[in-house]
């Protein structure tokens, strides 16, 4: 990235300038234009809350966070997720998968679509461990729906 020698500045001037003009200043006082916001790929996560499909006359509540990674609304990134369903009909399921690509929103934020299946094995919590419930047939549930907008962003120009 090119630098533009303008003049040497004090640290105080550099901080004020960076906060107002969204530019970076090198140690030697040279100005470097900051990348446009769309070019930044900030670390963030998403929340998903929904219900699974009905199988064997029951469904499960699903509530989890997608793993954080760097991405923007326009780069098509995806997130990994894993978790557990809530207990229904005396058991729960594990779930592991990937979100769909980022879907931009008019305000510059984005969300993802989840379309996955639970693990087929029904589990029950046994205190410090969980075990398969043999009295329930193996089955899966589908989870489909949008995540929330990205969460956990830090202001890249915040100076402490």
Automatic annotation (TrEMBL):
Report what the protein is called. YmaF family protein
The record's section on InterPro entries has:
YmaF (IPR024307)
Species source reads Paenibacillus gyeongsangnamensis
Q: What Pfam families is this protein classified in?
A: YmaF
């Amino acid at each position: 990235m090119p630098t533009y020698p303008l003049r040497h500045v004090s640290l105080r001037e550099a901080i004020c300038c960076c906060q107002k003009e969204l530019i970076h200043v090198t140690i030697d006082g040279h100005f470097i234009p900051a990348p446009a916001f769309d070019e930044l790929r900030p670390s963030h996560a998403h929340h998903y809350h929904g219900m699974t499909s009905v199988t064997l006359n029951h469904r499960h509540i699903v509530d989890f966070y997608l793993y954080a990674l760097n991405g923007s609304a326009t780069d098509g990134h995806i997130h990994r997720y894993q978790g557990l369903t809530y207990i229904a009909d005396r058991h729960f399921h594990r779930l592991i998968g990937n979100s769909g690509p980022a879907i931009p929103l008019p305000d510059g934020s984005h969300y993802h679509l989840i379309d996955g299946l639970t693990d087929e094995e029904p589990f029950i919590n046994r205190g410090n461990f969980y075990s398969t419930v043999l009295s329930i047939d193996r089955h899966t549930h589908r989870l489909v729906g949008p995540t929330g907008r990205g969460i956990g962003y830090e202001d890249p120009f915040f100076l402490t």
